[in-house]
Amino acid sequence: MFARVSTFQGSPEQLDESTRQAIEQIVPAARRLAGFQGVLSLIDRATGKSITITLWQDEEAMRASEEAANRLRATGAEAAGESVVSVERYEVAFSEMSSPAA
Questions:
Q1: Which residues fall within 8 angstroms of residue 54, CB to CB, at 6 or more apart?
Q2: 5: nearest Cα among 33, 34, 32, 42
Q3: Phi-psi region at 35: left, alpha or beta (left = phi > 0; alpha = psi -120 to 50)
Q4: What's CA 49's distance to the chain center, in Å?
Q5: Minimal CA–CA distance to 30: which of 10, 56, 9?
């Protein structure tokens, strides 16, 4: 599995709107990309910084999604009044996620 880590900077007051837009527009578009495995969004309400981690089946799928990911990232950042600080790529060494209790 591979991960693309995008860091954004915006206004703390815009984080809820940014999150709403990501859930309603960006994530559904990402789901349609071949090899997409999931997403994790981290926010710092004090600073307005956010980090989005998208997970990909393999490096080939991650690389193949670059153009679409660039468009989605730019669209999302613009709509939320954020700037893209950095984009990095990693191989996932391990992961563990527990399902929330029902």
A1: 3, 4, 6, 30, 36, 38, 39, 69
A2: 42
A3: left
A4: 13
A5: 56
- Residue 101's pLDDT is 57
What dihedral angle (degrees, nearest 10) is formed by the CA atoms of 55, 60, 63, 67? -100
N- to C-terminal Cα separation, the chain: 28
Here the tokens at position 50 are 């956010």
Q: Count how many Cα atoms sit within 13 Å of the Cα of residue 74 in the half-sphere of its side chain.
A: 6
Question: Rounded to whole angstroms, how far apart are CA atoms 9 and 47?
Answer: 8
| Residue with tokens 């703390």, as numbered in its chain | 12
> Which residues, listed in sequence order, are joined to residue 36 by a DSSP beta bridge?
56
pTM above 0.85, yes or no: yes
- Kindly report, residue by residue over 12-57, the tens digit of the pLDDT: 999 998 899 899 999 999 999 999 999 999 999 999 999 999 999 9
